[in-house]
Amino acid sequence: MSKTKGRVTLPSESNFLEETKEMLDRWGADALRDSDGTKLDDEIKSLDAKIYTTYFVARGHNEFAKEHMDECQQMLLMSKHNLATSDSVTIDFLDGYYREQVIADYVHDPKKWWEVIDRTTGDVVPASGWSVDQEKDLVTIEKTVPFHEYTVSFFVYAIWDPTQMYNHITNDWGDKPHDIPFDVRQANSGTFAKDYLKQWLIDNPDTDVVRFTTFFYHFTLVFGADRKEKFVDWFGYGATVSIKALEEFEQEYGYALRPEDIVDNGYYNSTFRVPTKAYRQYMDFIQRFVARKAKELVDLTHEAGREAMMFLGDNWIGTEPYGPYFESIGLDAVVGSVGGGATLRLISDIPGVKYTEGRFLPYFFPDTFYEGNDPCIEAIDNWLSARRALMRNPVDRIGYGGYLSLAYKFPKFVDYIEKVTDEFRLIYDNVKGKKPYSGLKVAILNSWGRLRSWQAYMVAHALWYKQTYSYFGILESLSGAAVDVVFLSFDDIRENGVPADVDVIINAGDAGTAFSGGEEWLDETLVTAIRKWVYEGGGFIGVGEPTAVHHGGRFFQLADILGVDKELGYTLSTDKYFTKALDSHFITKDRTACCEFGEVKHDIYALSADTEIIEYSNNEVHMAANTYGKGRGVYISGLPYSYENTRLLMRAMYYAAHKEDAFHVWYADNLNCEVNAYPESGKYAILNNSNETQTTKFYDGDGNCKTVTLEPCEIRWEEKK
């Protein structure tokens, strides 16, 4: 492969000039960046490369923050559940929290802003029924009911930025000062944020791109007393909550939010919770504020002749790249961390910016780059998983972060990334702006819809969780599949029906979550609309506990479409005779091993003899299909990401859509291989998604078949004759 240049951002650091020159040349990089904990010296900045400089709006300015500690960012937290064994109980409400990160807010009257709840009854204890010892951080509740549990919801000031705290602990930064986050909603802090940026732009003339990391409010990340992460929600608005914000919300909406609207029984409105009306309004309130204030900083950046880039992480809350206010900010670019295909598409599909950039793994930190470890293992896995998505819609740039001096000590890794950067540029040149062939249009249906495009089932960004991988695999599979993907909310269907061009709807998740829908399915308007759509020819796929809420003698509210329901124990006396699985089915035709359902859902049973049972074991159905009028429903117990499950999902979608005849169009029969075609340019690519040699039958757009052999990780580019 010939050496190419550009579209790559390289991290560097002071006193690393000659090595940086070498790496710029070898990786074809045209931009240099600093990282949290590194700086670029003047010699580095003088190199022939665009300079990105990390800019923290609301942290990293301790001299100002220490003079305005009453303008620190705030959070509403909830204590542990405390058992009363007599007629009073004293609660150490900070028990379990890390006191170097948060301190109780006594500037504002706890009696007005805090809330004590009897969690056994749900009743709020009146303010007259409890007192606060401010010296010892204790709340004492009088006239308690013995053997009831009580909690305190309380305001704190956040006095240590959680990302800097994480990096501090990971890299053992010792006595390095703790970054204190301040709130730009406050008068002095808002003025300081603008004035400081104005002067900073003057003082940093060699910065071409201001890399805002990010703007104002960190995702919810609270540490425990053991200095480990206690609560992490990459979508959490916990750090946006202040007394001033709640006062301004009440002025605008005409009602006051309770602390319980924020702490939410200790769930903190995690992205898995079906959002309440109050929380949706609060999110919208914050998004409008963030967009307005961020635009002020972006405008200052543009006036100084620089580009404004946002990092999709850290203090990104309120920006919501797929929300209604994002484009009004006027950013030039977004950069984010790439954990795989779904996170790649999360970045590359963002509308309203000039370019997008993916920060690939591994991060050049000592937890990966240490003697005896091979960072290539993580790099290869990261590249192959993300590369599938690049073939559908590439980011405009790629890059890495951390300490270049660490990575430089691993020659094998440096050699591998040199190949990666060249391959990326080849993909970009062939794919960008070329609409890829799509055989279907698929809609992911949940409470969040477009707002959380490619973000379903995440807790902390791209991390694996036992309760989520069986669903996140759906997005990972779709990220590189030859289908168009859209994200619909339940409100979208209630208000507008199912879009006419959608072939298949997928509803997946555990019962009661925002992704399955919970009580959303009690709305007869929603249920009726989807039933009608499927009956007239649409396809519906349910994974896990789709449409699940107990009502009307059903648990799956669209059990009639899916052909299955879940036994809750209420119908054990009703015999269930439909247990025989089919010998073969279109959906499982490519299987080479037993089906892998991940955290399999138990006690699923077929409703009638008409249900096509595809997989049955342990006296329960794990996969089934069902004809419903002119349409079809498909049920799958779980779908963790693998190449086999990617093929299974593709077959399930084509079957649900009644388009089996079109399945062998731009198709490779080897599960480790995929085909992407670009009709506008006449080019197509056959991918080997494995690190081993693969042979596959390849079908072109006209159904012609030939056998090809691909080297490990190879992409074979061809032109249609």
TrEMBL record:
Q: According to the UniProt entry, what is the EC number of this protein?
A: 2.4.1.211
Which controlled-vocabulary keywords does the entry list? Glycosyltransferase, Transferase
Per the record's keyword annotation, is Transferase included, yes or no?
yes
Q: Name one GO molecular function term.
A: 1,3-beta-galactosyl-N-acetylhexosamine phosphorylase activity
Q: Does the keyword Transferase apply?
A: yes
A matching Pfam family: Lact_bio_phlase
Q: Which top EC class is named for this enzyme in its record?
A: transferase
Mind telling me what this protein is named? 1,3-beta-galactosyl-N-acetylhexosamine phosphorylase
